[in-house]
Amino acid sequence: MITTSPRSRQRNGWQEELAQAVSDPHELCRLLGLDPALAQAAERLGSPFRLRVPHSFIRRMRRADPNDPLLRQVLPLGGEATSPAGFSSDPLAERAALAAPGLLHKYRGRALLIATGACAVHCRYCFRREFPYGEQLAGAGRWRAALDALAADPTIEELILSGGDPLSLTNARLTELTGALAAVPHLRRLRLHTRTPVVLPSRVDAGLTAWLGSLPWRTVIVLHINHANEIDAETRAAFNELARADVMLLNQSVLLAGVNDSLAALRTLSETLWEAGVLPYYLHLLDRVQGTAHFEVDEARARALAAQLASTLPGYLVPRLVREMAGAPAKLPLTPGPWVQALAGTAPE
Q: Are 93 and 327 a contacting pair, CB within 8 Å?
């Protein structure tokens, strides 16, 4: 596999590493020794949601394996060309929940700020892959409208920074944003939803941890990890640095066919997260955005898997199986399937 020395990566910095992310399916297939026909299939899709994956994440993929669970998350597949009934461009009706440009207010007590449209990786199952970032970005001067709406609603006590990925912003921009948020008196908690420390661990630099340590709120970082193979020595080191900045580290996953839809994969993920200092939080059913039907795991199978997982791990290592539904007041918890079946070992492996 192609390697880069840690010293070189440190010298170049995370922004240069991000700029060198792979966007050509042919290059990705060449790096991994894969059949070039896979790249040709990806090209034929012609999707505006292009391939993007940092070399750090590629190094964790298995060579010559088209079914590698990390590769499946990022390489465009032919299944994206089909969208059965029930799949749409806005499956969670987020545009209807906009309180201001870039500010989503779906649930009481908390709101979500689209801090940027940029991500370090383009996950093929992303429910915001067709979100109109150009219209709704809360960056630069457009933060003002979102901050005004936030300040005007005293019921909002928690703000979630999302995107895109908020850690695609520089430390200076993050400092600018949270400096403005500090003027909102009823804001008590800050949460960041991010995949960047997972796919680009070099992003967790001294400036980022200093920014986190300076925040006036107890901060929660919700990472997004779907498979245990995403966690290596570099990511563990990054998570340790985040923990030293006195943030709580949680993880949310998406249940994805061909990636983590087995008891073995889910159990190993929870155990590996715990060893890396991250607490399993949510296991989401797929949000039904068009082009992602090939990733869907049906609810009955998901419930059975969750039941068997709960029967083999302590409760604090079992993420809550949930579905997000447009217009609902909260995420819908999905009770695991029949315990008798789980304990009898009849849930799918």
A: yes
Asked if 200 contacts 232 with a C-beta cutoff of 8 angstroms, the reply is: no
Amino acid at 240: N
- pLDDT tens per residue across span 131-173: 766 555 555 566 889 999 999 999 999 999 998 999 999 999 9
Structural tokens at position 189: 């908690």
Beta strands in 206-247 (DSSP E): 218-224
Domain boundaries, the chain: 6-81, 219-227+249-349
Topology of domain 219-227+249-349, CATH: TIM Barrel (3.20.20)
- Inter-residue contact 194 to 165 (CB < 8 Å): yes
Going by C-beta distance under 8 Å and a sequence separation of 6 or more, which residues neighbour residue 328?
A: none
CA 162/CA 335 separation, integer angstroms: 28
Closest alpha carbon to 283 in 254, 258, 304, 311: 254
Q: Is the pTM of this model over 0.85?
A: yes
Cα(186)–Cα(195) distance, integer angstroms: 28
